[in-house]
Specification:
heterodimer, A: mainly alpha, two-stranded antiparallel sheet, B: mainly alpha, two-stranded antiparallel ribbon, 73% helix
């Protein structure tokens, strides 16, 4: 595989993970526009372990993901009582606070960031995406997945039938932060050099956009959205310097044409039924 | 020293106030968050710089920015909000993020990604009032931004149009039944919000003399911070919030380290949302979600 293809596919894998991290939070009827913050924690944390402490990358990744997850749980608790725009703005504020924190955090290089990160292979990204996908599939099929659904469609009814909505919602933040932490660590050790500016609000927003455009009813939608919108800028290369403008316009037009995303559960079920015949 | 810093903070804060005012108008009347607002501001700034580089005086540059941003903001309404009026509440908000990406890249194509400069303004005189040093240009900017804020306040709270806007904010359906043309109200809201962003853009370009296609992201966020601190949906609160943030930033730069600037502002933001989501001046009508 050429370096070029490998680069694109690695970025795509990272985007799929980011879409998953946004999806799992959306699946409980919440929203996070601050997942770039978790990604930053995963990136700087794993970078600190590999570069400064000389740890092997896989171990550093897992510690970083757990750290990010702990922060996710810590964020999930105060955010529980926020709804609508307050939730949007609160998580957005969290992401920006994390970015501003790393600008002032000297152990990871402050505003200049860290260099000398390497080691992410394509196989590693592939395995991570595969494992996380299987994990999400298992969650979706389990009692917890049904609890997610119940909360997303009617919080009060869910509470009424004995679902601990506080625990489930906080858990969603924990899982989402874990996945975003993995994405951050993998992407940092692929990019070789990271700075706090890499984890801007736009990264969080794109993760949510992947899910909304792909379809937020199933994690397959998140995956599809991430794949299509990672490849689209490459397919638009012939447009040269206008490609990112066209990309933005394409997102707006798609949103108008399919506001509920490309994939829905009914469509998937129909597909399975047709395939079984 | 302190008085000088307060004057600088007032100058910076007045542009933030204009941004927050536009965001709050759209959120208050229309119950929608326009995340491209910062990029609409950026486009206005560039339009002003372009006009000035053709030799337009400051007032014409401000008008160029105002008109450009107002037109673009109506475009935002037509492409992101109107077609998605029945969709999930996230859909139009995310669509405006895509619109922001579009604006950033179009601006990069037209004006390049290097900082653009507002041409030097000649005939600047320095005034000294009670130990505070102010240039004539700063005085003009303060006069423009405060008179704009005052006129918006008068229009919203003292005129028929303002009453229509406020009625739509409380309940669009009932307002429609009572004879308010709510479609026009929405259009006017976006026009005014865009115009305010455009004015703020040109004034920012004049004060800092440098702008890039990406400044809108940060300034849009700061506008949101001001909006939250002032109380979501409260217009006067948003203006005060903007000025407060300007003061906080300038005081931070003067007495702490400039690199703490964003950390302080965004921690305040996050702290407010979690601990005091209603802001400093809660909106009494209570129609916020």
């Amino acid at each position: 595989m050429s370096m070029y293809m490998e680069g694109i596919l690695t970025q795509m894998g990272v985007n799929i993970l980011m879409a998953y991290s946004a999806y799992i939070i959306l699946a409980t009827g919440q929203l996070s526009l601050g997942n770039a913050g978790f990604m930053a924690i995963g990136a700087f944390c794993s970078g600190y372990f590999t570069v400064r402490l000389g740890m092997p990358l896989p171990i550093a990744l897992i510690i970083a993901a757990f750290t990010s997850s702990a922060v996710g749980i810590a964020l999930g608790i105060p955010v529980l009582r926020l709804h609508g725009f307050f939730l949007v703005l609160g998580t957005l504020g969290f992401g920006e606070t994390v970015r501003a924190f790393f600008i002032n955090f000297e152990p990871t290089g402050g505003a200049y960031g860290m260099r000398g990160l390497f080691g992410t292979t394509f196989e590693m990204v592939l395995i991570t995406v595969f494992v996380v996908t299987v994990g999400l599939w298992a969650i979706e099929k389990s009692r917890i997945g049904r609890a997610f659904d119940a909360i997303a469609s009617d919080e009060y009814a869910a509470q009424g039938i004995g679902i601990n909505i506080r625990a489930i919602k906080v858990m969603a933040f924990g899982i989402g932060a874990f996945i975003a932490g993995l994405a951050g660590g993998l992407s940092a050790h692929h990019l070789l050099y990271i700075e706090p500016g890499n984890f801007s609000f736009l990264v969080s927003a794109m993760a949510v956009l992947f899910v909304i455009l792909g379809g937020m009813q199933t994690f397959w939608g998140a995956m599809l959205g991430a794949i299509i919108f990672s490849l689209l800028p490459e397919m638009l290369r012939f447009m040269d310097e206008w490609r990112l403008s066209v990309y933005g316009a394409a997102l707006i037009i798609l949103m108008i044409l399919r506001p509920n995303g490309l994939l829905s559960r009914i469509f998937l079920r129909g597909l399975v039924v047709r395939l079984k015949r | 020293m302190l008085a000088q810093q307060l004057a600088n903070g007032l100058l910076l804060g007045s542009t933030y106030a204009l941004i927050a005012l536009g965001l709050t108008l759209v959120l208050g009347v229309f119950d929608k968050l326009n995340i491209a607002h910062g990029d609409v501001f950026m486009f206005g700034a560039f339009a002003g710089v372009a006009a000035a580089s053709f030799g337009a005086p400051l007032i014409l540059a401000v008008i160029a920015g105002l008109v450009t941003s107002a037109a673009i903001n109506v475009l935002v309404e037509r492409s992101c909000f109107y077609p998605l009026r029945n969709a999930h509440f996230l859909a139009p908000m995310l669509s405006t993020i895509a619109f922001g990406i579009l604006l950033q890249n179009v601006a990069t194509q037209i004006w390049g990604s290097d900082p653009s400069r507002y041409p030097n303004i000649e005939a600047v005189t320095q005034y000294e009032v009670g130990g505070i040093l102010l240039s004539s240009i700063h005085v003009i900017i303060l006069v423009i931004s405060f008179s704009v804020m005052l006129s918006v306040d008068i229009v919203i709270y003292r005129t028929k149009l303002g009453r229509a806007l406020r009625a739509t904010a409380i309940d669009p359906e009932v307002a429609g039944l009572l004879g308010v043309n709510t479609k026009n109200v929405v259009l006017v809201t976006f026009l005014v919000a865009g115009a305010l962003a455009g004015i703020a853009g040109v004034l920012t370009a004049v004060v800092y003399s440098q702008i890039t296609p990406l400044i809108g992201i940060r300034l849009g966020l700061i506008g949101m911070v001001a909006m939250v601190i002032g109380g979501l949906g409260n217009l006067r609160g948003a203006m005060i919030g903007g000025i407060l943030i300007g003061l906080v930033q300038v005081l931070n730069d003067a007495y702490l380290d400039a690199s703490y600037r964003d950390l302080i502002v965004f921690s305040l933001f996050f702290g407010f949302i979690v601990l005091k989501p209603a802001g400093l001046f809660p909106q009494p009508s209570g129609n916020r979600s």
